């Protein structure tokens, strides 16, 4: 009976933890690149949107429905944005 209440909350906590994990690993990378001034602002915007995509993919439940890890669409999205930025 207790598990019926605790288990869904535990799953929700794990989902938020994975989202925080993703953002916490994307943000330092963005800051390092910004401070090194190795890449322009377009790349930084790309990385931020990559993190947002990964978090949205994870929290929306698409990952559990499709079985596709949340980093795969984030990386694909990142490459698409970089391609568009390089073409313009």
From TrEMBL:
It comes from the Bacteria. The keyword Transmembrane applies. Gene3D superfamilies: Sodium/glucose cotransporter. InterPro entries: Na/Glc_symporter_sf (IPR038377). The chain crosses the membrane at residues 16-36, 43-60, 66-86. Keywords: Membrane, Transmembrane, Transmembrane helix. This is Uncharacterized protein. It comes from Thermodesulfobacterium geofontis.
